[in-house]
């Protein structure tokens, strides 16, 4: 019965996410293309890769979580939400970095428990802006609301990750030569954007669907938790 309940919850997260995808597919594709373009353009400048992954990406990921959460809540979401993390750069950046470090430490110690540990704190990326928390408070909040649900969240993650691994971890990527996945390149040979069927499935369907399912999971668990009714704490960071 408990397993049936877990599967029902995961199914409801993905069902809710699919409805959000269907309602806002062009907006979601636009956000995905913008993220890819930002990343690829950053790598074209000296030191751009380091700047992008260690400075720009953390608040962007927090902003993407805010965007997804608004979509599943049927609130008005726009491109400005993607950059909301920059308005609270300190705590958005710290939340992402702390989560990455916590996950990495867990994986180094023990692979499977480490992944589950990382899953348990991953909802901090939603909580930091949604509840106006500091990085430490967001991680604690995520740990509390995911207690008893982490294996379920791991299964939900694998549902999204496995299709991506199948699409891009096998020879399927080369199917149809340039039709499956081809690169838009600049005059000096640098990749600007990936296009094609595979790129669309990953960036326009599977990736957004999984991200929205996580937003739905956060929304449900935060509502269920007795901590959800606690007043928002002003962030000191």
The percent range for strand residues is: under 5%
Instruction: Tell me the structural class.
Output: mainly alpha
Q: What is the number of helices?
A: 11
Query: Uncertain segments of ≥5 residues (pLDDT<50)?
Result: 171-187, 231-237
Number of strands: 2
Number of domains: 1
Mean pLDDT: 79
Compute the separation of the termini in Å. 43 Å
Major β-sheet, in short? 2 strands, antiparallel
Overall 3D shape: globular
Radius of gyration: 18 Å
SSE pattern, N- to C-terminal: HHHHHHHHHHEEH
Helix share, percent = over 70%
Give structural attributes.
237 residues, two-stranded antiparallel ribbon, 2 strands, 4% strand, disordered C terminus
What does this entry look like structurally?
- With 237 residues, the chain is mostly helical.
- The chain has one domain (2-224).
- The protein has helices spanning 2-23, 25-42, 48-72, 79-82, 84-87, 89-109, 111-121, 124-130, 135-145, 150-168, 197-224; strands spanning 182-185, 191-195.
- It has a two-stranded antiparallel ribbon with strand order 1-2.
- α1 (2-23) packs across α10 and α8 crosses α9.
- The longest helix has 28 residues, at 197-224.
